[in-house]
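Shapes recur. One chain:

:::
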Amino acid sequence: MIGEEDYDHLYKLVLVGDATVGKTHILSRYIKGTLPKAPTATIGVEFATRTVSLDTGCTVKAQIWDTAGQERYRAITSAHYRRAVGALLVYDITQPATFKSCQRWMDELRSNAEPDIVIMLVGNKVDLAEKSAGDRQVDFDTASDFASQQGLLFEEASAVTGANIKACFEKLLKEIYSTTQHRRDREPMDPTNSMHLQ
């Protein structure tokens, strides 16, 4: 088990999306492996951390911010996007309005977070569609096409069963690592930090 303080990189992630899409359940499932005992609407912002070993050989600490989906908290939550390098943009596959809102959430993220933020689109509540196919209101291919057009990662998941929750975070963290390493390789060397051999 990795100690909470042993990590190579710290990444700030945000969970965004409309109210009731399951952001808090996703966070609880990923951090604790369980659902909240008495789920309530998130007021403002809450966060949790998890340290993960990537298959790249490095260890990252994910600081994951769970934001309120209600409009009245928008000013509070958008301030917390600053310095975020990754986001899970969550919608409910049984509620098409939550998918339609994804464009607005994405625009807000791209306006307030880091310029090269990595965004994973997550269709939550697939367990409901598995129980009753008629409950699915957002087609997999429609969401996948939207993600491709917007340059997003994409997964469907279920916070209730835990299906794909770990995979969502791990894919996001790997892509952030890759993006930040690529950016570091592209940046010109700062002459004040370089060593000169005499």
Summary: The chain has one domain: 9-186. Residues 189-198 have pLDDT under 50 and may be disordered. The chain has seven helices and six strands. The beta strands are 9-16, 45-53, 59-67, 86-92, 118-124, 153-156.
